[in-house]
C-alpha cells in the first residue's frame, strides 16, 4: 500500500521555480535575459559588417558587368560607323532621349544610386562621346578614336572603376586617382598599388 501512495503523490514540475513563499512561478531571470541579449549582440556585430561587405561586392560586380556590356556595344558601334563618336547608350536601356550617363541600379534616384557610369572621348576625357561643338549645323567636337569609361560611386568603402578602349581596366577606392590623361601612360592614371589601385 505504501508503494501506491508514493506513486500518487504530487511533486512540482521541474520547470517550475518555487519562490520563498512556497508558490511556484515560471519565467526567465534577469541574468538569463542579459546573457541572451549579449549573445544576440555578438552575432549582430559579426553578421552586419559581413552583410554590408557582401552588398558592396554585389554592387561593384553589377557595375563591372554593365561596363563590359557597354564596351561590347561601343565596339559594335565602331564596326558600323568606323568611329566611337556619337555613341549613345540609350538604346540599351529603352530611352528615347540622349543619355550623358548611366545610373545603377536602373531607375534609382538620389541616395539609392550605387554607380554612375560615364563614357568619354579617349583623346579628350573632358568631353563625352556625344559632345557637340559649335557651328551651323553643330558638329561633334570629339575625335572618337578611343573611349574611356568610368564608374563612380559615392560609397567611400567601395571601388570606382576605369576602363578604356586601349585595354586599361583598373579600380581604386580613391575616386580622384582614377583619371585618364593622354599625356601619361594608361596604368599611371589608376594610381599605384600603394594608393590602392588594382586591376580587374
Automatic annotation (TrEMBL):
GO biological process, one term: protein secretion by the type II secretion system
Entry keywords, A to Z: Membrane, Methylation, Transmembrane, Transmembrane helix
Keyword Transmembrane helix found: yes
One cellular component term from this protein's GO annotations in UniProt: type II protein secretion system complex
Superkingdom field: Bacteria
Sequence intervals crossing the membrane: 30-52
InterPro entries: Bac_GSPG_pilin, N_methyl_site, PilE-like, Pilin-like
Keyword ATP-binding included in the entry's annotation: no
Pfam families: ComP_DUS, N_methyl
The name this protein goes by in its record: Fimbrial protein
Organism from which the protein derives: Acinetobacter bouvetii
Amino acid at each position: 500500500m505504501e508503494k501506491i501512495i508514493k506513486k500518487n503523490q504530487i511533486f512540482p514540475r521541474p520547470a517550475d521555480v518555487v519562490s520563498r513563499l512556497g508558490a511556484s512561478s515560471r519565467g526567465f531571470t534577469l541574468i538569463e535575459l542579459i546573457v541572451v541579449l549579449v549573445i544576440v549582440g555578438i552575432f549582430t556585430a559579426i553578421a552586419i559588417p559581413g552583410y554590408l561587405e557582401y552588398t558592396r561586392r554585389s554592387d561593384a560586380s553589377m557595375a563591372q558587368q554593365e561596363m563590359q556590356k557597354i564596351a561590347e556595344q561601343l565596339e559594335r558601334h565602331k564596326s558600323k560607323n568606323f568611329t566611337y563618336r556619337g555613341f549613345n547608350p540609350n538604346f540599351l536601356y529603352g530611352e528615347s532621349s540622349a543619355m550623358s550617363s548611366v545610373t545603377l541600379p536602373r531607375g534609382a534616384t538620389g541616395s539609392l544610386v550605387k554607380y554612375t557610369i560615364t563614357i568619354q572621348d579617349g583623346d579628350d576625357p573632358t568631353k563625352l562621346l556625344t559632345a557637340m561643338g559649335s557651328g551651323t549645323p553643330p558638329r561633334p567636337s570629339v575625335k572618337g578614336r578611343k573611349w574611356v569609361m568610368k564608374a563612380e560611386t559615392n560609397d567611400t568603402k567601395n571601388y570606382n572603376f576605369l576602363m578604356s578602349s586601349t585595354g586599361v581596366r583598373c579600380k581604386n577606392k580613391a575616386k580622384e586617382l582614377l583619371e585618364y590623361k593622354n599625356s601619361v601612360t594608361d596604368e599611371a592614371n589608376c594610381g599605384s598599388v600603394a594608393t590602392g589601385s588594382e586591376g580587374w
